[in-house]
Sequence to fold (364 residues):
Amino acid sequence: MNRKPPRNGTKKEILNTLLVDGNALFKTGFNGASGVYNRDAIHVGGIYQFITVLRKLLTENLYHQVYVFWDGTFSGKLRYDFYPDYKSARGKDFINGSHPVDESEVNQKIRISKYLEELFIRQIKDEIVESDDYIAYYCKTKKEHEAVTICTNDRDMAQLINRGIRIYFCDPQIKNYVTVANFNQYFKYHRENAALVKSIIGDNSDSIRGIKRLGEPTLLKTFPEITERKVTLEEILIKADRLQNERLESKKKPLAVLTNIINGITTTKPDENGNSEDLVMGMDFYDRNWKLVNLSEPLMTETGLERLEEYLDAPLNPEGRSIKNAYTLIKQDGIDHIIGENRFTDYLVPFKKIMERELKKIIN
Fold:
Protein backbone atom coordinates (compact mmCIF):
# COMPACT_ATOMS: atom_id res chain seq x y z
CA MET A 1 0.00 0.00 0.00
CA ASN A 2 1.38 3.39 -0.93
CA ARG A 3 1.70 5.73 2.01
CA LYS A 4 0.63 9.30 1.51
CA PRO A 5 3.22 11.95 2.39
CA PRO A 6 2.76 14.11 5.51
CA ARG A 7 0.05 16.73 5.19
CA ASN A 8 1.66 20.12 4.79
CA GLY A 9 0.52 22.94 7.04
CA THR A 10 0.04 26.35 5.49
CA LYS A 11 0.88 28.34 8.64
CA LYS A 12 3.85 28.40 10.98
CA GLU A 13 1.71 28.61 14.12
CA ILE A 14 1.40 25.46 16.20
CA LEU A 15 -1.72 23.45 15.42
CA ASN A 16 -2.86 21.51 18.50
CA THR A 17 -4.71 18.29 17.82
CA LEU A 18 -6.33 15.86 20.25
CA LEU A 19 -6.71 12.22 19.20
CA VAL A 20 -8.92 10.10 21.44
CA ASP A 21 -8.86 6.31 21.58
CA GLY A 22 -12.61 6.05 22.07
CA ASN A 23 -12.86 2.42 23.14
CA ALA A 24 -9.96 2.75 25.58
CA LEU A 25 -11.29 5.92 27.21
CA PHE A 26 -14.79 4.47 27.44
CA LYS A 27 -13.63 1.17 28.94
CA THR A 28 -11.57 2.99 31.57
CA GLY A 29 -14.56 5.11 32.54
CA PHE A 30 -17.09 2.29 32.37
CA ASN A 31 -15.05 0.11 34.74
CA GLY A 32 -13.64 2.92 36.86
CA ALA A 33 -17.02 4.49 37.52
CA SER A 34 -18.86 1.21 38.02
CA GLY A 35 -20.67 2.69 41.01
CA VAL A 36 -22.02 5.77 39.23
CA TYR A 37 -25.79 5.50 38.70
CA ASN A 38 -28.50 8.03 37.89
CA ARG A 39 -31.72 8.62 39.83
CA ASP A 40 -33.35 5.64 38.12
CA ALA A 41 -30.55 3.31 39.26
CA ILE A 42 -29.18 3.03 35.71
CA HIS A 43 -25.42 2.84 35.36
CA VAL A 44 -24.13 5.94 33.53
CA GLY A 45 -20.52 5.90 34.71
CA GLY A 46 -19.15 5.25 31.24
CA ILE A 47 -20.88 8.31 29.78
CA TYR A 48 -20.04 10.57 32.72
CA GLN A 49 -16.36 9.64 32.82
CA PHE A 50 -15.88 9.87 29.05
CA ILE A 51 -17.31 13.38 28.79
CA THR A 52 -15.62 14.48 32.02
CA VAL A 53 -12.14 13.37 30.92
CA LEU A 54 -12.63 14.98 27.51
CA ARG A 55 -13.80 18.13 29.27
CA LYS A 56 -10.67 18.09 31.46
CA LEU A 57 -8.38 17.83 28.42
CA LEU A 58 -10.16 20.69 26.65
CA THR A 59 -9.94 22.79 29.79
CA GLU A 60 -6.21 22.26 30.20
CA ASN A 61 -5.24 22.97 26.59
CA LEU A 62 -6.54 24.84 23.56
CA TYR A 63 -7.09 22.29 20.79
CA HIS A 64 -7.82 23.34 17.25
CA GLN A 65 -9.29 19.96 16.31
CA VAL A 66 -10.44 16.82 18.11
CA TYR A 67 -10.93 13.34 16.67
CA VAL A 68 -12.39 10.32 18.45
CA PHE A 69 -11.50 6.94 16.90
CA TRP A 70 -13.72 3.92 17.56
CA ASP A 71 -13.12 0.24 16.88
CA GLY A 72 -15.60 -1.44 14.55
CA THR A 73 -17.08 -4.95 14.64
CA PHE A 74 -14.11 -6.54 12.88
CA SER A 75 -11.40 -4.12 14.03
CA GLY A 76 -8.24 -6.18 14.42
CA LYS A 77 -9.00 -8.55 11.56
CA LEU A 78 -5.89 -7.42 9.69
CA ARG A 79 -3.84 -8.88 12.54
CA TYR A 80 -6.10 -11.88 12.99
CA ASP A 81 -5.58 -12.82 9.34
CA PHE A 82 -1.94 -13.73 10.00
CA TYR A 83 -2.26 -14.49 13.74
CA PRO A 84 -5.57 -16.27 14.51
CA ASP A 85 -5.01 -16.12 18.28
CA TYR A 86 -5.16 -12.32 18.23
CA LYS A 87 -7.43 -11.10 21.05
CA SER A 88 -8.76 -14.65 21.49
CA ALA A 89 -8.85 -14.21 25.28
CA ARG A 90 -11.49 -11.51 24.79
CA GLY A 91 -13.77 -13.91 22.97
CA LYS A 92 -13.83 -11.80 19.82
CA ASP A 93 -15.08 -13.61 16.72
CA PHE A 94 -13.42 -12.18 13.60
CA ILE A 95 -15.40 -14.48 11.31
CA ASN A 96 -18.97 -13.75 12.39
CA GLY A 97 -18.34 -10.44 14.12
CA SER A 98 -19.81 -11.57 17.42
CA HIS A 99 -18.21 -11.09 20.81
CA PRO A 100 -19.36 -10.95 24.44
CA VAL A 101 -21.35 -7.76 25.03
CA ASP A 102 -22.75 -5.94 28.00
CA GLU A 103 -26.05 -4.25 27.17
CA SER A 104 -25.28 -1.28 29.39
CA GLU A 105 -21.88 -0.92 27.74
CA VAL A 106 -23.40 -0.91 24.26
CA ASN A 107 -26.10 1.60 25.19
CA GLN A 108 -23.67 3.99 26.85
CA LYS A 109 -21.33 3.98 23.84
CA ILE A 110 -24.27 4.84 21.60
CA ARG A 111 -25.19 7.73 23.87
CA ILE A 112 -21.61 9.02 23.96
CA SER A 113 -21.60 9.10 20.18
CA LYS A 114 -24.73 11.28 20.29
CA TYR A 115 -23.08 13.67 22.76
CA LEU A 116 -20.04 14.00 20.50
CA GLU A 117 -22.23 14.67 17.45
CA GLU A 118 -23.95 17.54 19.24
CA LEU A 119 -20.60 18.94 20.37
CA PHE A 120 -19.06 18.87 16.87
CA ILE A 121 -16.43 16.31 17.88
CA ARG A 122 -15.31 14.35 14.84
CA GLN A 123 -15.71 10.57 15.11
CA ILE A 124 -14.10 7.99 12.85
CA LYS A 125 -14.91 4.30 12.85
CA ASP A 126 -13.94 1.53 10.47
CA GLU A 127 -15.20 -2.04 10.57
CA ILE A 128 -11.71 -3.49 10.06
CA VAL A 129 -9.02 -0.88 10.82
CA GLU A 130 -8.20 -0.58 14.53
CA SER A 131 -8.29 2.80 16.22
CA ASP A 132 -4.63 2.28 17.24
CA ASP A 133 -3.64 2.12 13.58
CA TYR A 134 -5.69 5.16 12.67
CA ILE A 135 -4.04 7.16 15.46
CA ALA A 136 -0.59 5.87 14.50
CA TYR A 137 -1.19 6.77 10.85
CA TYR A 138 -2.34 10.25 11.83
CA CYS A 139 0.82 10.76 13.91
CA LYS A 140 2.99 9.47 11.09
CA THR A 141 1.50 11.99 8.65
CA LYS A 142 0.88 14.91 10.98
CA LYS A 143 1.64 18.41 9.77
CA GLU A 144 5.09 19.82 10.35
CA HIS A 145 3.89 22.43 12.84
CA GLU A 146 1.28 20.24 14.50
CA ALA A 147 1.43 19.14 18.15
CA VAL A 148 -0.54 15.98 18.88
CA THR A 149 -1.96 14.78 22.18
CA ILE A 150 -3.28 11.21 22.33
CA CYS A 151 -5.76 10.14 25.00
CA THR A 152 -5.69 6.41 25.72
CA ASN A 153 -5.04 3.79 28.39
CA ASP A 154 -3.21 1.53 25.92
CA ARG A 155 0.48 1.42 26.83
CA ASP A 156 1.30 -0.05 23.42
CA MET A 157 0.89 3.48 22.12
CA ALA A 158 3.88 4.63 24.18
CA GLN A 159 5.93 3.89 21.07
CA LEU A 160 4.26 6.87 19.37
CA ILE A 161 5.64 9.40 21.87
CA ASN A 162 8.05 11.69 20.09
CA ARG A 163 8.87 15.35 19.61
CA GLY A 164 5.48 16.97 19.11
CA ILE A 165 3.55 13.85 20.21
CA ARG A 166 2.55 13.17 23.80
CA ILE A 167 0.04 10.84 25.45
CA TYR A 168 -2.44 11.47 28.21
CA PHE A 169 -2.81 8.04 29.80
CA CYS A 170 -6.28 7.99 31.32
CA ASP A 171 -5.75 4.82 33.37
CA PRO A 172 -5.53 5.34 37.16
CA GLN A 173 -1.93 4.11 37.37
CA ILE A 174 -0.63 7.05 35.33
CA LYS A 175 -3.40 9.61 34.79
CA ASN A 176 -0.96 12.14 33.41
CA TYR A 177 0.69 13.42 30.24
CA VAL A 178 3.71 11.36 29.19
CA THR A 179 6.25 13.06 26.94
CA VAL A 180 9.78 12.52 25.69
CA ALA A 181 11.02 14.41 28.76
CA ASN A 182 9.26 12.38 31.47
CA PHE A 183 8.92 9.00 29.69
CA ASN A 184 11.22 7.19 32.13
CA GLN A 185 9.15 8.23 35.10
CA TYR A 186 6.49 5.82 33.88
CA PHE A 187 8.31 3.24 31.76
CA LYS A 188 11.47 1.33 32.63
CA TYR A 189 12.85 1.12 29.08
CA HIS A 190 14.09 3.72 26.61
CA ARG A 191 11.12 5.11 24.68
CA GLU A 192 12.54 4.06 21.31
CA ASN A 193 12.49 0.43 22.49
CA ALA A 194 8.77 0.34 23.32
CA ALA A 195 7.79 -1.75 20.29
CA LEU A 196 10.90 -3.95 20.57
CA VAL A 197 10.15 -4.85 24.21
CA LYS A 198 6.55 -5.73 23.39
CA SER A 199 7.58 -7.81 20.36
CA ILE A 200 9.86 -9.91 22.58
CA ILE A 201 7.76 -10.40 25.72
CA GLY A 202 4.37 -10.36 23.99
CA ASP A 203 1.10 -8.84 25.21
CA ASN A 204 -1.32 -10.91 27.27
CA SER A 205 -4.16 -8.43 26.81
CA ASP A 206 -4.09 -9.08 23.05
CA SER A 207 -3.19 -12.79 23.38
CA ILE A 208 0.19 -12.16 21.73
CA ARG A 209 2.55 -14.76 23.17
CA GLY A 210 6.14 -13.77 23.85
CA ILE A 211 9.38 -15.63 24.41
CA LYS A 212 8.79 -18.47 26.86
CA ARG A 213 9.57 -17.64 30.51
CA LEU A 214 10.64 -14.10 29.66
CA GLY A 215 8.97 -11.12 31.29
CA GLU A 216 9.91 -7.46 31.24
CA PRO A 217 11.96 -7.53 34.50
CA THR A 218 14.18 -10.40 33.27
CA LEU A 219 14.55 -8.84 29.83
CA LEU A 220 15.71 -5.51 31.27
CA LYS A 221 18.00 -7.15 33.82
CA THR A 222 19.67 -9.26 31.11
CA PHE A 223 19.87 -6.42 28.60
CA PRO A 224 20.15 -3.17 30.64
CA GLU A 225 21.06 -1.25 27.49
CA ILE A 226 17.35 -1.38 26.62
CA THR A 227 16.82 1.13 29.42
CA GLU A 228 19.59 3.45 28.21
CA ARG A 229 19.42 3.80 24.42
CA LYS A 230 17.78 2.54 21.27
CA VAL A 231 18.58 -1.14 20.76
CA THR A 232 18.04 -3.45 17.78
CA LEU A 233 16.81 -7.03 17.83
CA GLU A 234 20.08 -8.07 16.23
CA GLU A 235 21.99 -6.67 19.22
CA ILE A 236 19.77 -8.62 21.61
CA LEU A 237 20.28 -11.90 19.76
CA ILE A 238 24.05 -11.43 19.44
CA LYS A 239 24.39 -10.65 23.14
CA ALA A 240 22.15 -13.56 24.14
CA ASP A 241 24.36 -15.90 22.13
CA ARG A 242 27.51 -14.42 23.68
CA LEU A 243 26.17 -14.71 27.23
CA GLN A 244 25.21 -18.33 26.65
CA ASN A 245 28.63 -19.20 25.21
CA GLU A 246 30.34 -17.54 28.18
CA ARG A 247 28.35 -19.74 30.52
CA LEU A 248 29.28 -22.86 28.60
CA GLU A 249 32.96 -21.89 28.57
CA SER A 250 32.77 -21.42 32.35
CA LYS A 251 31.24 -24.89 32.68
CA LYS A 252 27.96 -23.40 33.81
CA LYS A 253 24.55 -24.76 32.92
CA PRO A 254 23.01 -22.91 29.94
CA LEU A 255 20.14 -20.58 30.82
CA ALA A 256 16.82 -21.74 29.43
CA VAL A 257 15.64 -18.17 28.88
CA LEU A 258 18.70 -17.38 26.74
CA THR A 259 18.07 -20.54 24.71
CA ASN A 260 14.48 -19.40 24.22
CA ILE A 261 15.58 -15.94 23.04
CA ILE A 262 18.20 -17.31 20.65
CA ASN A 263 15.83 -19.84 19.09
CA GLY A 264 12.63 -17.81 19.19
CA ILE A 265 10.87 -20.31 21.45
CA THR A 266 7.34 -19.44 22.47
CA THR A 267 4.37 -21.64 23.36
CA THR A 268 1.22 -22.79 21.62
CA LYS A 269 -2.20 -21.59 22.63
CA PRO A 270 -3.27 -23.38 25.85
CA ASP A 271 -5.83 -26.16 25.32
CA GLU A 272 -9.04 -26.54 27.30
CA ASN A 273 -7.04 -28.00 30.21
CA GLY A 274 -4.59 -25.08 30.19
CA ASN A 275 -1.75 -27.11 28.71
CA SER A 276 0.55 -25.73 26.02
CA GLU A 277 3.58 -26.91 24.09
CA ASP A 278 6.87 -25.29 23.13
CA LEU A 279 6.90 -23.78 19.69
CA VAL A 280 10.32 -23.18 18.08
CA MET A 281 9.87 -20.40 15.53
CA GLY A 282 13.29 -18.74 15.18
CA MET A 283 13.17 -15.42 13.34
CA ASP A 284 9.60 -16.11 12.27
CA PHE A 285 8.57 -15.44 15.87
CA TYR A 286 10.19 -12.02 15.94
CA ASP A 287 8.95 -11.12 12.45
CA ARG A 288 5.39 -12.06 13.38
CA ASN A 289 5.34 -10.21 16.69
CA TRP A 290 7.00 -7.14 15.20
CA LYS A 291 4.26 -6.93 12.61
CA LEU A 292 1.64 -7.32 15.35
CA VAL A 293 2.90 -4.61 17.69
CA ASN A 294 4.85 -2.15 15.55
CA LEU A 295 2.78 1.01 15.01
CA SER A 296 5.39 2.73 12.85
CA GLU A 297 3.79 0.74 10.03
CA PRO A 298 0.07 0.88 10.88
CA LEU A 299 -2.14 -1.78 9.31
CA MET A 300 -4.63 -0.04 7.04
CA THR A 301 -7.00 -0.84 4.20
CA GLU A 302 -7.42 1.32 1.12
CA THR A 303 -11.05 1.93 2.06
CA GLY A 304 -10.16 2.85 5.63
CA LEU A 305 -7.41 5.17 4.46
CA GLU A 306 -9.68 6.91 1.99
CA ARG A 307 -12.36 7.35 4.67
CA LEU A 308 -9.84 8.94 7.01
CA GLU A 309 -8.36 11.32 4.45
CA GLU A 310 -11.80 12.43 3.25
CA TYR A 311 -13.12 13.02 6.74
CA LEU A 312 -10.17 14.75 8.39
CA ASP A 313 -10.92 18.30 7.29
CA ALA A 314 -14.33 18.03 5.63
CA PRO A 315 -16.89 20.50 7.07
CA LEU A 316 -19.37 18.92 9.49
CA ASN A 317 -23.06 19.32 8.84
CA PRO A 318 -24.29 21.74 11.56
CA GLU A 319 -27.98 20.98 11.02
CA GLY A 320 -29.64 19.89 14.25
CA ARG A 321 -26.46 20.09 16.33
CA SER A 322 -26.19 22.37 19.36
CA ILE A 323 -24.73 22.56 22.83
CA LYS A 324 -28.30 22.93 24.08
CA ASN A 325 -29.07 19.47 22.74
CA ALA A 326 -26.06 18.11 24.61
CA TYR A 327 -27.38 19.56 27.86
CA THR A 328 -30.71 17.91 27.09
CA LEU A 329 -28.94 14.57 26.72
CA ILE A 330 -27.29 15.10 30.11
CA LYS A 331 -30.69 15.60 31.73
CA GLN A 332 -32.21 12.65 29.89
CA ASP A 333 -29.43 10.41 31.15
CA GLY A 334 -29.82 11.76 34.67
CA ILE A 335 -26.21 12.91 34.81
CA ASP A 336 -27.12 16.44 35.87
CA HIS A 337 -27.49 15.45 39.51
CA ILE A 338 -24.07 13.74 39.38
CA ILE A 339 -22.49 16.90 38.00
CA GLY A 340 -24.29 19.05 40.55
CA GLU A 341 -26.23 22.28 40.18
CA ASN A 342 -23.17 24.49 40.70
CA ARG A 343 -21.24 22.91 37.83
CA PHE A 344 -24.07 22.04 35.46
CA THR A 345 -24.41 25.32 33.55
CA ASP A 346 -20.66 25.53 32.89
CA TYR A 347 -20.04 21.84 32.37
CA LEU A 348 -19.89 21.94 28.55
CA VAL A 349 -18.26 25.37 28.21
CA PRO A 350 -14.83 23.86 27.35
CA PHE A 351 -16.37 22.36 24.21
CA LYS A 352 -17.47 25.73 22.84
CA LYS A 353 -14.13 26.64 21.27
CA ILE A 354 -14.07 23.39 19.28
CA MET A 355 -17.64 24.01 18.16
CA GLU A 356 -16.74 27.55 17.07
CA ARG A 357 -13.74 26.35 15.07
CA GLU A 358 -15.79 23.70 13.31
CA LEU A 359 -18.47 26.24 12.45
CA LYS A 360 -15.78 28.52 10.98
CA LYS A 361 -14.78 25.75 8.60
CA ILE A 362 -18.35 25.61 7.35
CA ILE A 363 -18.55 29.40 6.86
CA ASN A 364 -15.18 29.55 5.10
About this structure: Residues 233-249 form the longest helix (17 residues). The chain is about 40% helix and 10% strand.
